[in-house]
Prior knowledge:
The chain is mainly beta. 7% of the residues lie in helices and 41% in strands. It is globular and about 55 Å long.
Amino acid sequence: MAVTSFVYGPLQKSLFEGRINFTTDTIKAMLLSAYTVGTTQDTAQYISDVLAAGTEASGSGYTAGGATLGSKTVVYTAANSWSVQRANSTAYTVGDVVRPTTGNGYLYQATSAGTSAGTAPTWPTTVGQTVTDGGVTWANVGRGVLVVDAADPSWTTVNPGTLAGSHIVFYKDTGTTSTSPVILYWDLGGTQTASNGGAFTATLDSTEGLLTMFTS
């Protein structure tokens, strides 16, 4: 499935208000069967705000409220210690994060997908500046990155049975929808299904996890 991730605007408000401690709180992934995003990406702070514009999925193997995330971690990495180095003639997708082969103290994120050139570009050292690298455009995103990660949430259907969803919302579950702050949502690129014993799995990026936050 083609997943696109969107962070809710009020996330930082929730963080600075002390409403979310990712490693110790109960963080869940809720599957939605429909979601008219509208302005909620900029305005929704709680899962109740999202459910006012969306419908939680129901189906084989799914439990109301969603799946609880396990193996949660929050790790900060300075740019020169980032494990992924930019490579020649390599396909990159939007959102990929690399550092130059010879570290220069900055990280770069792909803002347009494509295949890198046969030689490295001249990397800009001002945050926000971009550079073209073959078919890829890289933006300088800062001097380090905080990666928020967890095990992949999954729902296993029974046989016979079907589970379908178009979006996944990640949030802290307080037990009350009006006080459960949202973190981000995934647009799955249309309705996806699993059936007859198959698993509906949300696969987090192996390097960039659930969420990346950069420091300048």
